[in-house]
Amino acid sequence: MKQYLDLLRHVRDHGTFKEDRTGTGTYAVFGYQMRYDLSEGFPMLTTKKLHLRSIIHELLWFLSGDTNIRYLKENGVSIWDEWATPDGELGPVYGEQWRSWKTPDGQVIDQITQVLDEIKRNPDSRRLVVSAWNPAVLPDPAISPDANAAAGKQALPPCHCLFQFYVADGKLSCQLYQRSGDIFLGVPFNIASYALLTLMMAQVCGLEPGDFVHTLGDAHLYSNHLEQADTQLARTPRALPTMTLNPGVKDLFAFTFEDFTLSDYDPHAHIKAPVAI
Ligand SMILES: Nc1nc(=O)c2c([nH]1)NC[C@@H]1CN(c3ccc(C(=O)N[C@@H](CCC(=O)O)C(=O)O)cc3)CN21
Ligand SMILES: O=c1ccn([C@H]2C[C@H](O)[C@@H](COP(=O)(O)O)O2)c(=O)[nH]1
């Protein structure tokens, strides 16, 4: 994960101090790109232990089209708790935009199924795009995330807002545009999550996994993560683990938690960091 560590070091050493919505303060750069060849191993950080359970359940939750944190809580995942209403609602976030984007005439569009069908039918297409960025449902910045969710708006505007697939030489690649990236906490999750999505999409399309390309807009290190960043940068990276999917699953929406096996993951210890709300 040299790519990630280079980003962390670059932003720590060259980021511009910037105030932010949460009042924490950040060091930021604008525009940064990383590339992970998925045949070289699964891109999970080894310089701190990552909680893969949360990553898998969150991705299955997005793919199911769900936007209530009930499923996450039932599975011991708490990463979305701070932004939900007391009923667990987050408003029309990722799951709804991916699987049931509402049109003005009352129809819904399942972007994931459409892209999946198009990859199989027309792999050379340059239109294999899924967008979670829907200006019609962006939150009102004057009210809190849970008040927005209660009003039918997104609790938070999507951070990983648009992704595109690309097929060449029998391999499926994916590029994500992430408008805002919390380098210490969110970005390692986002990398593993989209790498996993690419492996799943490739399997059900009969393709090999290619590259995951991660493009960031505002890439920031929160000012209360600086010590943690130093600790991480002082560690020596280890070999990447291997992710194996149950080869029997041919339907993207049929994957369950038990279909994923991570082997040879030998990370350094977890590093705690507070999440900016
Ligand atoms: N400031 C901020 N950073 C984020 O990364 C983030 C948000 N807000 N808001 C929405 C979602 C929620 N996400 C989160 C929230 C918390 C963790 C977190 O605390 N991670 C810990 C523990 C993980 C766990 O409990 O599984 C970590 O050490 O990685 C990670 C991603 C990503 N997003
Ligand atoms: O998947 C995610 C979701 C969120 N983040 C981070 C990026 C920012 O630090 C906050 C969101 O705040 P905004 O003011 O809306 O940009 O959450 C992430 O890194 N990955």
From TrEMBL:
<dbReference type="GO" id="GO:0032259">
    <property type="term" value="P:methylation"/>
</dbReference>
<feature type="binding site">
    <location>
        <position position="51"/>
    </location>
    <ligand>
        <name>(6R)-5,10-methylene-5,6,7,8-tetrahydrofolate</name>
    </ligand>
</feature>
<dbReference type="InterPro" id="IPR045097">
    <property type="entry name" value="Thymidate_synth/dCMP_Mease"/>
</dbReference>
<dbReference type="Pfam" id="PF00303">
    <property type="entry name" value="Thymidylat_synt"/>
</dbReference>
<keyword id="KW-0489">Methyltransferase</keyword>
<comment type="subunit">
    <text>Homodimer.</text>
</comment>
<feature type="domain" description="Thymidylate synthase/dCMP hydroxymethylase">
    <location>
        <begin position="2"/>
        <end position="277"/>
    </location>
</feature>
<feature type="binding site" description="in other chain">
    <location>
        <begin position="179"/>
        <end position="182"/>
    </location>
    <ligand>
        <name>dUMP</name>
    </ligand>
</feature>
<dbReference type="InterPro" id="IPR000398">
    <property type="entry name" value="Thymidylate_synthase"/>
</dbReference>
<comment type="pathway">
    <text>Pyrimidine metabolism; dTTP biosynthesis.</text>
</comment>
<feature type="binding site">
    <location>
        <begin position="126"/>
        <end position="127"/>
    </location>
    <ligand>
        <name>dUMP</name>
    </ligand>
</feature>
<keyword id="KW-0545">Nucleotide biosynthesis</keyword>
<dbReference type="GO" id="GO:0005829">
    <property type="term" value="C:cytosol"/>
</dbReference>
<feature type="binding site" description="in other chain">
    <location>
        <position position="190"/>
    </location>
    <ligand>
        <name>dUMP</name>
    </ligand>
</feature>
<dbReference type="GO" id="GO:0006235">
    <property type="term" value="P:dTTP biosynthetic process"/>
</dbReference>
<keyword id="KW-0963">Cytoplasm</keyword>
<feature type="binding site" description="in other chain">
    <location>
        <begin position="220"/>
        <end position="222"/>
    </location>
    <ligand>
        <name>dUMP</name>
    </ligand>
</feature>
<comment type="function">
    <text>Catalyzes the reductive methylation of 2'-deoxyuridine-5'-monophosphate (dUMP) to 2'-deoxythymidine-5'-monophosphate (dTMP) while utilizing 5,10-methylenetetrahydrofolate (mTHF) as the methyl donor and reductant in the reaction, yielding dihydrofolate (DHF) as a by-product. This enzymatic reaction provides an intracellular de novo source of dTMP, an essential precursor for DNA biosynthesis.</text>
</comment>
<keyword id="KW-0808">Transferase</keyword>
<dbReference type="InterPro" id="IPR036926">
    <property type="entry name" value="Thymidate_synth/dCMP_Mease_sf"/>
</dbReference>
<feature type="active site" description="Nucleophile">
    <location>
        <position position="159"/>
    </location>
</feature>
<dbReference type="GO" id="GO:0006231">
    <property type="term" value="P:dTMP biosynthetic process"/>
</dbReference>
<feature type="binding site" description="in other chain">
    <location>
        <position position="21"/>
    </location>
    <ligand>
        <name>dUMP</name>
    </ligand>
</feature>
<feature type="binding site">
    <location>
        <position position="276"/>
    </location>
    <ligand>
        <name>(6R)-5,10-methylene-5,6,7,8-tetrahydrofolate</name>
    </ligand>
</feature>
<dbReference type="InterPro" id="IPR023451">
    <property type="entry name" value="Thymidate_synth/dCMP_Mease_dom"/>
</dbReference>
<dbReference type="GO" id="GO:0004799">
    <property type="term" value="F:thymidylate synthase activity"/>
</dbReference>
<feature type="binding site">
    <location>
        <position position="182"/>
    </location>
    <ligand>
        <name>(6R)-5,10-methylene-5,6,7,8-tetrahydrofolate</name>
    </ligand>
</feature>
<comment type="similarity">
    <text>Belongs to the thymidylate synthase family. Bacterial-type ThyA subfamily.</text>
</comment>
<protein>
    <recommendedName>
        <fullName>Thymidylate synthase</fullName>
        <ecNumber>2.1.1.45</ecNumber>
    </recommendedName>
</protein>
